[in-house]
Every structure is written in C-alpha cells, then in structure tokens.
Amino acid sequence: MDLDKKLVGTSLFVAITASLCCIAPVLALLAGTTGAASTFSWVEPFRPYLIGLTILVLAIAWYQKLKPKSQEEIDCACEDDKPRFINSKKFLLFVTLFAGVMLAFPYYSGIFYPNSPVAKEVVFVEQSNVREIKVDIEGMTCTGCEVHIEREVNKLDGILAVDANYETANTIVKFDESKVKIEAIEKAISDTGYKIIN
C-alpha cells in the first residue's frame, strides 16, 4: 500500500510539472503578475519525457492495483483493515483523470484568457507611418503564452495588430510608428517575462 501512495504522488507531481510551462501564464494573468508568466518555460523541452514518465508511473500504479493477490497477501490481510479511499481504485482513477487533464492543459489553456482583445480606439492612421516588425521570442510554449503577449502589446497606443505564435517562436506587430516606438513594443514583450532573441 505504501508503494501505491508513492506512485500516485509521483504521477501527480510529474503531470503537473509537465504542464507548468503553460499553467504559469494563466496563474500570472489571474494574479496580475504578468512578468512571472514565463517562469517555468524552461520545463517545455523536458515535457515529452515528463509525459512519458507520468504514463509509466500510472501504468505501474494500475498494475500494482489490478494484479492478483498472492496467497501470502490474502492470508496476511486482517479483517479489521478497511480499505481507505486513498488506496482504492476510484482514487487511482481520479488521479489518472487529473493527470490527463494536466497533461492536456497546453491544448485548452486559451479558454482561460478573455476572448475580447484590449479595447482600442479606432483612429485614422497615415499609411506612411505604418510599420510591421517581427520579434523572435524565446519561452513561448502554448496558446496561453501567445494570448499573454498579444494582450500586453495591445495595451500600447498605436498598435494596429499583434500576432504571437509559439510554434514559430515569434510575434508580428503592425503599428503606427508616430505613436509607438519599437523599443516600447520590445519592452512590453520583455515585461511579460519572455526573452527577445536578437
């Protein structure tokens, strides 16, 4: 039974750790500490290994739970020992489902961000002042990271469009250079905690 508890605890820990890179931006947005968003982005390269470890640990836990008991284990069992919930198959099923939800978090993390962009005033922009830049960014790991960067850059005056993409590791910003400078855009991105690659 002690092994079961260790396996369950390990699987929960590893599943949560595997998704920390995407959980942190959501927590940062909710807490209003946008600079903390990329705190766990270093976990992202290890994510496939952590997912594999979670699956392995859960498989061992299920094997331990479902394997037939030996005669010695049956003879040793006391009638006074009532199985506790933490040692039950229901609890292991709950842990397995929770681990699955945590591992899938990067794929649905965008639902935690408001759908509406930051309210912007529509103003006339002289076409000669419109510029577009591409900023390479390190540390984006999911759609939550994209939304976080887009929301912060959109707060600046003169921003016409922002498109962050974690797959290409960059953000394309269209802006009115008479109202906002590139340095201000880069500062807004840096303030979210993600690193700009020069």
Provide a descriptive summary of the structure in words.
48% of the residues lie in helices and 13% in strands. The model has no long low-confidence stretch (mean pLDDT 78). The protein folds into two domains: 110 residues; 71 residues, Alpha-Beta Plaits. The relative contact order is 0.16. The protein is an alpha+beta fold. The protein has a four-stranded antiparallel β-sheet. The termini are far apart.
Task: Describe how the helices and strands are arranged.
Blueprint: H1 2-18, H2 20-31, H3 47-66, H4 71-76, H5 89-103, H6 105-108, E1 130-138, H7 143-154, E2 159-165, E3 170-176, H8 182-191, E4 195-197
Antiparallel strand pairs: 1-3, 1-4, 2-3
Helix pairs in contact: 1-3, 1-5, 2-7, 3-5
In a few lines, what is going on in this structure?
This protein is α+β, with helices and mostly antiparallel strands and 198 residues long.
* DSSP helix fraction: 40-55%
Mean pLDDT: 78
Shape: rod-shaped
SSE run: HHHHHHEHEEHE
Give the tags:
Alpha-Beta Plaits; 198 residues; four-stranded antiparallel β-sheet; 8 helices; single chain; alpha+beta; 13% strand; 48% helix
